[in-house]
Amino acid sequence: MSHTKQTEPQADIDELAREHFYQVLYGRRDVRNQFLPDPVPDDVLTNILHAAHHAPSVGLSQPWNFILIRNPELRNQIYSAFCQANDEAAQMFEGDRRSQYQSLKLQGILDAPLNVCITCDRNRGGPVVLGKTHQPEMDLYSTVCAVQNFWLSARAENVGVGWVSIINKNKLAGLLKLPEGVVPVAYLCVGYVSEFLTKPELELSNWEKRKQLEEMIFDDTWANRKG
Amino acid sequence: MSHTKQTEPQADIDELAREHFYQVLYGRRDVRNQFLPDPVPDDVLTNILHAAHHAPSVGLSQPWNFILIRNPELRNQIYSAFCQANDEAAQMFEGDRRSQYQSLKLQGILDAPLNVCITCDRNRGGPVVLGKTHQPEMDLYSTVCAVQNFWLSARAENVGVGWVSIINKNKLAGLLKLPEGVVPVAYLCVGYVSEFLTKPELELSNWEKRKQLEEMIFDDTWANRKG
């Protein structure tokens, strides 16, 4: 298994390995439309979860958990919660933008063979966690690092992932029976795909444009834009 | 350049590429002690920033900016803000735990040749952003995805990164002259290293243990722990 690598001495990353790494990083997509029903094998899922679990975490607190959601009835309830939020969201856009919003497919809750909720336990590590003393949101940010590791590792395994954020989190927490202090951070649809698109779907559909990196960089302070 | 890959048709990731990806992912460390003074070349830094900029973002809003901090005077001020927060933090631990905390080096602000603050513009994309309507924190989470892409890409370039969270964010925002609505998400120390440790420093120093993945997984709801 590749993840035994962690205990071997660390070698430099060579050019080929770097190319391969970027192939995964730039090949990652937010998948909504291309899910296939084929189940994700246990060993593949374990690789992805193991990668997520090796994300950085504040004070090594590892505040995440992984809820693997396959039950069809539960997924129907979650899908209903998405639909309600999505209808509310559509009303917030005006005119052409609203009809374009309504034409977009923004989730694969029922199409993907697996849904995964990655949660954050706000109390993990006790009341004083190294690195969280002045930024209490660091446990949430650590959990997002685990989400991004999950997403990239899935791409490395040729598995697609889509993040569903159009849902009421309290409702989701209730459906997943999360205890007090545990919050959902990411609700992910997970499965093999017919294809990985070459660009983000929102870019291909002209919803938004890719910004120029050069315009996003400053030197020393916000007063000195580089680009 | 590797990042031109994004416009080519997407091929499956093969076994060798996957191994290489995991070599990067499991080789990433939170660096505090091993920074070398050698500057990070511009093309290498551009590769890392480009990778960060290709993180997923809610509604493709790309809410991040990158502040490249090299000015020694400014870094001294930021280091002072860290020291103040770190002294406050130490007082929150008791007995042996406090002395152990005080013995840990938790940043490389002055040692690393480059510091990078990754910020989130809470107003990017206007008042209604697709996917942010029901989870307003999604722009912060997108920014953390960019941080994790930055971190992993740096490892692929054999560059170390350490995230400093022991600092007052309002003070940091003031020093970096961030405008209203732009918040610091991650303050990163960046540079080549004498070595990448085989395990997290907090694990090697017995501050915290790695948890078992099996205990972190649930089926369908929190009521069904898998492990």
Automatic annotation (TrEMBL), chains A, B:
It comes from the Bacteria. GO terms for biological process: cobalamin biosynthetic process. It catalyses: FMNH2 + O2 = dialurate + 5,6-dimethylbenzimidazole + D-erythrose 4-phosphate + H(+). SUPFAM superfamilies: FMN-dependent nitroreductase-like. Residues 27-192 form the Nitroreductase domain. Its EC number is 1.13.11.79. GO terms for molecular function: 5,6-dimethylbenzimidazole synthase activity; nucleotide binding. It is an enzyme of class 1 (oxidoreductase). Keywords: Flavoprotein, FMN, NAD, NADP, Nucleotide-binding, Oxidoreductase. Homooctamer. Belongs to the BluB family. This is 5,6-dimethylbenzimidazole synthase. It comes from Neptuniibacter caesariensis.
